[in-house]
Amino acid sequence: MTLMPRNRANHPLPYAPAYKSSVPRSPRLALISGSATATEQTGPVFGHDLLGELDNNLILNFTGQPAIGERIIVHGRVLDETGRGVPGALVEIWQANAGGRYRHKKDGYLAPLDPNFGGCGRTISAEDGSYEFLTIRPGAYPWPNGVNDWRPMHIHFSVFGQSFGQRLITQMYFEGDPLIARCPIVNTIPDKAAIDRLVAPLDMGRALPLDCLAYKFDIVIRGNRQTMFENRMEGL
Questions:
Q1: What is the DSSP string of 157-202?
Q2: Which residues form a coiled coil (predicted)?
Q3: Residues 165-212 pLDDT 10s
Q4: Which residues have C-beta within 8 Å of that of residue 213, sequence separation ≥ 6?
């Protein structure tokens, strides 16, 4: 099958002075495109039997006791460039807790850690490409970029293809968050339509009454409607 050509104008700018850490990390020379090797296209692979029963439930999967915060469902489909579901894809997420703090030794934000929230989850996409996570809405947090820059509420996503060389890493934002338009990382993407594809709309059809809201986030891995990568060009 012939792949649709990439529109590199949609991708985040590698050199964006407003996003300070992009300056030392941006390439100084022209990019070189190389062919993928057999090992990059076929392996290594992961074992689907390694997933636990609660791996896609971030509210309970750290200690078995419920995490603190607003309960939400995040769901959607992993799709190819023609809109077909991609089955068997490993979908992983990680995020800050309800106060905007990560469980990481270098996170020094003043918000407290939740002893029952690890902030990581994973699942396998179904035959139609669908996936679902039960989690806590993450909080916004400040970061040392500008004088008073804040990251919007967001969830990091990683999607593996048929090998670990086929990987998409991106971020999902929440509909209505005013910090999205103010974020220097988001603003490295020059196309507003591409930014909009990173914003998950509220999905009341999947919300559970007296329990949790839901947000729908489809991930398109190639083609004209592809989901933007996180601060880098595409993989395979």
A1: EEEE-SSTTSEEEEEEEETT-TTGGG-TTGGG---HHHHHTTEEPB
A2: none
A3: 678 899 999 999 999 999 999 999 988 999 999 999 999 999 999 999
A4: 70, 72, 73, 202, 204, 207
Catalytic residue chosen out of the listed positions 156, 173, 197, 215: 156
Q: Write the CB contacts of 20 (distance below 8 Å, at least 6 apart in sequence).
A: 145, 146, 184
State yes or no: is 84 an active-site residue: no
The set of residues, in sequence order, having a beta carbon less than 8 Å from that of 160 and lying 6+ positions away, is 46, 89, 90, 92, 166, 167
Residue length of the chain = 236
104 is catalytic: no
Of 192, 200, 193, residue with least CA distance to 224: 193
Catalytic annotation, pick one of 11, 75, 137, 151: 151
Neighbours of 147 (CB within 10 A): 5
Catalytic pick from 75, 77, 101, 154? Answer: 154
pTM here is 0.86
The answer to whether 156 is a known catalytic residue is yes
pLDDT tens-digit series, residues 125-149: 999 999 999 999 999 999 999 899 9
